[in-house]
Amino acid sequence: MITLTVMSTESVPDRIPQRYASFVSSSLLTPVPPPLPLSIARCLADNAVAALIAEATLTPKPGLVDMRSRGAHHDLNWSLMCHSARALHPAFFAMAQAGRHIQSVLSLREEIGRLGREGELQMMQATGGVNTHRGAIWALGLLVTAAAQNMARMEAEAVAERAAVLARCHDQFAPLKTGNKGELACQTYGVGGAREQARAGFPYVVGVALPCLKHCRKRGDSEDIARLNALLAVIAVLDDTCVLSRGGPDALLAVQSGAQQVLALGGAGSMPGKIVFQQWESGLLDRHISPGGAADMLAAALFLDQLEHTFCQSQHDRNAIWKK
After folding, report:
1. pLDDT per residue over 111-133, tens digit each?
2. Backbone φ, ψ for residue 69 (5° rounding)
3. 20 belongs to a structural domain
4. Among 4, 105, 202, 287, which has the minimal tally of Cβ within 10 Å of its Cβ?
């Protein structure tokens, strides 16, 4: 099983399992060799779970569960989010295996749909009926599967495009209607939601969160600030169905405009940005607004970012050796 090495893990809480601790650390990851084929599925599942834990652990976040508080949620907390993430490991592992071994795109889509629904049941059992990661199962499940399909092309854009192909396939076994809040928000407000994000190749992950993450690292932001700014960049543009279901279009406007203001002031790491962030978050909490859809996009971005660190950098190093 692959282990991820970091320069320091002092900021990692003791309660995080060691297998995920290095990913959650605020230090930049050190690229490591990719796993052997027999461990690929486990590696991808580990990375997916670690991305969910990293998203939950990032502190502060506006209206979302973090290490400080429940955010705008009365039924969630950090420990429950981490427990839920770990409970999804078998589902992600099975999806990765399916991605490696099922050649038919339609058959693969139907299989991971089945696995995703089973994963949702596992999540609900683990959390006592609380929806912690329904949207993340969809997004990360597709990306885990897509990553496993072609280990030679692990760039974020390539993985997201393969995931889009899967998302656009019809799953004849999927229920026509679920009654979930995200689905109802899409119908009520005419937005695409998580389904359309996936079908479009996760544009707010590949085109917004990841570029912001890399830009902030390059200019010297800490890893936590870079991740928070990436989250804000997504919040600023995403028609978040979690926000719409809680407060409608007015709430969405308040969420997006607040994120835009923080970014315009230099991001969450600048003093003006911090002041506006605190005022903005206070308003979100008063209205019980939580941008959960954007949080799922951040987790997806962290997953793809780790793939590039682990696989693409290793491939680049091997190519450089052969050229010498």
Report:
1. 999 999 999 999 999 999 999 99
2. -160, 180
3. no
4. 105
The CA distance from 38 to 42, in Å, is 8
The Cβ of residue 74 has, within 10 Å, a number of other Cβ atoms equal to: 8
The pTM is what? 0.88
Q: Kindly report the number of other CB atoms within 10 A of residue 37's CB atom.
A: 9
Residues in the chain: 324
Q: Is the CB of residue 235 less than 8 Å from the CB of residue 269?
A: no
Give the pLDDT score at 24.
65
Q: Distances from the Cα of 61 to the Cαs of 75, 212, 215, 291, 295, in angstroms?
A: 17, 16, 20, 10, 9
Q: Rounded distance, CA 249 to CA 105, Å?
A: 37
Into how many domains does the chain fold? 1
pLDDT at 152: 92
CB atoms within 10 A of CB 151: 17
The tokens describing 112, both together, are 């991971």
DSSP labels for 33-57? Answer: PPPPGGGHHHHHHHHHHHHHHHHHH
- Helix, strand, coil fractions of the chain, as percent rounded to 5: 70, 0, 30
Residue among 112, 180, 171 at smallest CA distance from 143: 112
Q: Are 90 and 150 in contact (CB under 8 A)?
A: no
Residue written as token pair 């990306």: 143
What mean pLDDT value characterizes the chain? 89
In a domain, 94, yes or no: yes
What does residue 102 show for φ and ψ, rounded to 5 degrees? Answer: -95, 115
> 102 with 321: CB under 8 angstroms?
no
CATH of the domain at 278: 1.10.4200.10
Angle at 154 between CA 150 and CA 159, to 5 degrees: 75
Per the structure, the complete domain to which residue 166 belongs is given by: 35-323
